[in-house]
């Protein structure tokens, strides 16, 4: 190559290099990402032997050659600034941002809280609740697709419907307001126990003592000895205790009182709210077992109340006997 040809090639190389630098400067000044003028080298093609060895041929087309972008100077300047932002500033920006809207409406949240705080409207329908339209809660949907309706309106899907014949219902319906007789039943129990105690103290015990031979001590004095004498032997000598059918009378009265409660419908129990919500989703034997177990617990509580009333009545008799004997 002659000297003039070499000089011409050198001049063209210098000019092309200068045009590349000028293009970089102009694109950086405009804020665009500068693009290299030269193209990336072509990707190596897969040899035919490798395709045959693998047993398949690639149907993916070769990606076109594009100018590789370089990082933007503006992005490079803003990245350290974003990284150096204080966490307190980030928290402040999040606080100033618009609040996130919940999935449930405010009315639905209130109904959910009422269900958890023992004020759930289990006997209501979606139409009877103010501000809650049927489109918000659709009881016709399955419980898995509509958990809010299954929790608030279980009777809409037949959750609290009656069970098979001979079994307790699957869930407990809300109890109606108690009647006057139902409110007076605890006083009826207490008055009945005290009347039975007065019958044995004032009539049955003196009659039995007179049949075996009285001790000459007055009625009130003998009962007052229970509050004055500590040795049990002396009390037994003074009272001359005789066997009386007190236990059988107490048992008979208990059977009568509980039968009246059962046949009058006063033995209905109201499970706790969370238990009432879970009852429809339990297997068939468990709801009846739970409801009947609550009824037996109620009967046991009433039995203990009646027994406590008898003990209190005996204490009053001993106290009043001491005053009358003095």
UniProtKB/TrEMBL annotation:
Keyword Transmembrane tagged: yes
Which residues lie within the region annotated Disordered?
1-106
* Compositional bias of kind Pro residues: 61-72
InterPro entries noted in UniProt: Get2/sif1
**Pfam families membership:** GET2
Report whether rRNA-binding shows up as a keyword of the record: no
The region annotated as signal peptide is none
Q: Which domain of life is it from?
A: Eukaryota
Ranges that cross the membrane: 184-204, 307-325
Q: Where is the composition biased (Low complexity)?
A: 73-91
Question: Which keywords does this chain's UniProt record carry?
Answer: Membrane, Transmembrane, Transmembrane helix
Residue ranges that the Swiss-Prot or TrEMBL entry lists as coiled coil: none
Basic and acidic residues compositional bias: what residue ranges? Answer: 30-41
The alphabetized list of GO BP terms reads: retrograde vesicle-mediated transport, Golgi to endoplasmic reticulum
PANTHER family, A to Z: GOLGI TO ER TRAFFIC PROTEIN 2
Q: What is this protein called?
A: Uncharacterized protein
Taxonomy of origin reads: Eukaryota, Fungi, Dikarya, Basidiomycota, Agaricomycotina
């Amino acid at each position: 190559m002659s000297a003039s040809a070499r000089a011409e090639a050198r001049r063209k190389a210098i000019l092309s290099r200068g045009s590349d630098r000028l293009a970089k400067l102009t694109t950086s000044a405009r804020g665009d990402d500068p693009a290299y003028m030269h193209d990336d080298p072509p990707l190596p093609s897969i040899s035919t032997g490798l395709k045959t060895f693998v047993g398949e041929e690639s149907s993916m087309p070769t990606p076109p050659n594009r100018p590789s972008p370089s990082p933007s100077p503006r992005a490079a300047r803003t990245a350290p600034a974003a990284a150096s932002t204080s966490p307190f500033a980030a928290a402040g920006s999040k606080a100033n941002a618009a609040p996130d809207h919940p999935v449930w409406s405010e009315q639905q949240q209130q109904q959910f809280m009422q269900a958890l705080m023992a004020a759930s409207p289990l006997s209501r329908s979606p139409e009877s609740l103010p501000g809650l339209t049927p489109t918000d809660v659709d009881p016709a949907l399955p419980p898995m697709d509509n958990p809010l309706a299954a929790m608030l309106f279980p009777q809409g899907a037949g959750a609290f419907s009656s069970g098979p014949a001979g079994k307790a219902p699957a869930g407990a319906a809300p109890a109606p307001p108690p009647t006057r007789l139902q409110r007076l039943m605890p006083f009826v129990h207490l008055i009945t126990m005290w009347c039975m105690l007065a019958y044995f103290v004032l009539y049955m015990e003196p009659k039995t003592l007179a049949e075996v031979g009285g001790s000459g001590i007055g009625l009130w004095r003998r009962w007052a000895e229970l509050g004055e004498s500590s040795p049990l032997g002396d009390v037994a000598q003074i009272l001359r205790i005789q066997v009386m059918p007190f236990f059988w009378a107490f048992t008979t009265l208990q059977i009568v009182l509980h039968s009246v409660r059962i046949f009058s419908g006063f033995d209905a129990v109201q499970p706790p709210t969370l238990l009432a919500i879970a009852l429809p989703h339990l297997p068939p034997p468990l709801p009846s077992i739970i409801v009947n177990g609550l009824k037996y617990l109620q009967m046991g509580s009433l039995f203990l109340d009646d027994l406590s009333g008898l003990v209190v009545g005996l204490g009053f008799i001993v106290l009043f006997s001491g005053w009358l004997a003095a």
